[in-house]
Structure formats: C-alpha cells, structure tokens
Amino acid sequence: MPKRQILLLTSSLYEDGTHLEHVRPYIEKILTKNNVKRVLFIPYALANCDYDEYTEKVETIFGKWGFHVDGIHKSPDQIAAVKKAQAIFIGEGNTALLLLQLYDEEIVKAIRRRIIDDGIPYIGSSVSPNVTVCSSQTANAMGVVCPGPFDALKLVPFLINPHYLEPNANLIDRRETFEVRILEALMVNERPCLALREGACLVIERKNATLFGPANAILFRKGEEPTEFPPGTNFGFLFDECKDVAVPISKFYS
C-alpha cells in the first residue's frame, strides 16, 4: 500500500489574510510527527517570479514555526534534492506552468517515488492539488503554457478542483462557471472530481482522505448529480472507486 502523507490546501490565504496561518496546525502536525527539520520548496507555479524572493517568503513563515526551507531552484541537481528531501511543499500559481516546469526539470517521477514509496510529507497549496492528482484537467485557469499531457503526479487517483465557487446569479454571462468547467473535464475523464471551497484542507494518509475546513466539499461524478459532503468526511472510498478506471501512462513515466 502507498505510504502517502499528503496535505492539500485550497488556499494559502483565508479570511485574515495571513499567509498559511489558517492551516498552520495541519502543517505543523504533518511535519512534526515525521521529525521534519527542512522542507524542500518548489516555487515553479508563479510566472515572472523571483524564486529567491518567493522562497524567502515561505522561509519566513515556516521559520517562525521551527522549520527551515530550501528552494529547489538553487540545487544544481534537482533530482538529488528531491531524493534527499525530508518533506516537499509546492506553492500557488498557474497549474500548466507548474506542470511544465516539473517535467522540464525531470523531477515528476522522483517526487512521486518519494511520496508514494518513501512516504515523506507532501504539502500542496492552491493550484498544487491540480498536479497532485492523476490529471490536471480540472484546473480552473487556462494554461499560460502547454505542458504536453495532462498527466500529473498521480499521488492520488481522483481529480480535485480547488477554489470552488458557486455560480453568481447576478452575472449575465454564466457559461464558464466552476461547475461547467468540471463537467466539461468529466466528459473525457471517468474519474470523480472533488471540488474544494476556499479554506478547505484535505488530509491524506495512505488510503484515507479527510476533509477539514469551514465548508462542505462537492463530489462530481460523470452522469450524476453533484453531492455535498460535510467537513469530517473521509473520502477514502474514492481510492477504491478509482481502482478500476484506467489512467494512461505518458512517455514521461517510461
């Protein structure tokens, strides 16, 4: 059985506007129980970003909690950096840009092995859940680049849609709502999609996936009405539900 220990955060900012503060207990718990001292940060999701500044921002936050942060971009051998990492954190930005950079640096397989086989903690914020799953097809934003296939890290077998918002009845043009975007993706993907509202936190351990946060999550299945689930729900049943649904393996996994 995979040893996965994954913390997926819909938002890095919520309500009080303090970066990651609303999910601090979950971050501290997953890192502390694994005796993590240093976190490998992957800053590749932001376009036109100074990776040093972005890493320093994360280092400032994690440093107050007793953890050191290393930016993967500073390593001359990024695969080696992943292999030595005690924990991995990927921040917010654009899904397609992030996925392309992960492929360009050839670290997709290395990350997957560290999380699935070795069981080191993985934390993904904002768009990062889109690359944690088997496919990035349910990303909300249009890609600013083309990463090639939609194949993502495949750390969990179902799909995720972060930042989910209900349609605004006051808008005249409501064609491309979050719900429509998900349903479009499910036309070509058989796997269920878990839509997470702002502030949500999904804690995944082995084959358990428990929802925490201020609001329900919505589960979309192809050809069925969406279903609401409250905080505290364990979505572990999705691991078994997805077991018999094929996921094409791209050349990047050869």
UniProtKB/TrEMBL annotation:
InterPro entries in the record: Class_I_gatase-like, Peptidase_S51
Biological process (GO), any one: proteolysis
Superkingdom of the organism of origin: Eukaryota
GO MF entry, a single one: serine-type peptidase activity
Keyword entries, A-Z: Hydrolase, Protease, Serine protease
Ranges annotated as spanning the membrane: none
Entry keyword annotation includes Methyltransferase: no
Matches recorded under Pfam families: Peptidase_S51
Family as reported in the entry's similarity comment: Belongs to the peptidase S51 family.
Name of the protein in question: Dipeptidase E
Record organism: Hermetia illucens
Lineage: Eukaryota, Metazoa, Ecdysozoa, Arthropoda, Hexapoda
